[in-house]
Amino acid sequence: MTESLEGKVIAVTGAGSGIGRALALNMAARGAVLALADMDAAGLAETKALLGNRPASITTLDVTDTPALAAWVASAVTDFGRLDGIINNAGLSVVAPFADCPRDDFNRVMDVNFTGVVEGCRAALPHIRSAAAKDGVGWVVNISSVFGMMGYPTQSAYNASKYAVRGLTEAMHLELAVTDPAVCVIRVHPGGIKTNVAKNSKRIALLPGQDPNADFAAEFEKAAKTTPEQAAEVIVQGMIRRQHRVLIGPDARFIDWMVRLFPVTYFKRIGSFLGRGD
């Protein structure tokens, strides 16, 4: 089954740059109506300018502000008369081994990457269920990561948040398949994407033996295999085809297989692929 996005109202968090912006442009070109949110007001305004006269609203908010997040969803329904889907895309990361990661930094990652997704789903789902009951389709799209499939040193907070998104989304898919089969719930696992997530990561501490002078953002940018535009196209195709699990990039597909084949020793095997010797 394939679906059209023409006239569908889709809410997107983290729309001020990266995958969120690319999703907005891609879906707008397909006739979607957009409610866009980001805490970066300048980036969000730039996204709106790139959309030209295509129908879209923009709201500056932090997804950890639950009342503001709920109000944004409600305003989208008020502005456009319905809500057909939400893409929970906002995220951030910190670099630190768990033992060296301050509680506030760990909790901030969890609040943005997981609780923001939970509350986005909570606010949007009643409206999406209503729209799907009328028109036969609705979407809940949650962006996890390849780090929601494998552990990675110095990324305990990010790992925890993305595994949590994966578990939440799998459970929602199974539940809504029974109660609301017209609502398509999708978990997305991007590999390395050329976005600002790595560049903007807060670097707190490293493991013994790691080069303190290494430019991890530059290394990530070099290793990233996929552009935000390519990622957005894969996600949108997943929505159109009603897929429930979307892998983005050759690295994501490789990691998926390695974790399946070698559930205990995968990191030793993947390490060389990722440019690590340990």
Explain what the structure shows.
With 278 residues, the chain is α/β, with parallel strands linked by helices. The chain has a single domain, classed as Rossmann fold (3-Layer(aba) Sandwich), CATH 3.40.50.720. It has a seven-stranded parallel β-sheet, sandwiched between helices. Strand 6, helix 5 and strand 7 form a beta-alpha-beta unit. Helix 1 packs across helix 7 and helix 4 packs parallel to helix 5. It is globular, with a radius of gyration of 18 Å.
For the record, the CATH class is: Alpha Beta
**Overall average residue pLDDT:** 90
User: How many helical stretches?
Assistant: 9
Q: Output the helix-strand order.
A: EHEHEHEEHEHEEHHEHH
> Given the helix and strand composition, which structural class is it?
alpha/beta
Helix content: 40-55%
CATH fold-type name: Rossmann fold
Strand-residue proportion: 15-25%
Poorly predicted regions = none
What's the total count of β strands?
Answer: 9
Strand order of the largest sheet: 3-2-1-4-6-7-9
Shape: globular
> If you compute it from the alpha carbons, what radius of gyration comes out, rounded to the nearest whole angstrom?
18 Å
Oligomeric description of these chains: single chain
Q: What CATH architecture label applies?
A: 3-Layer(aba) Sandwich
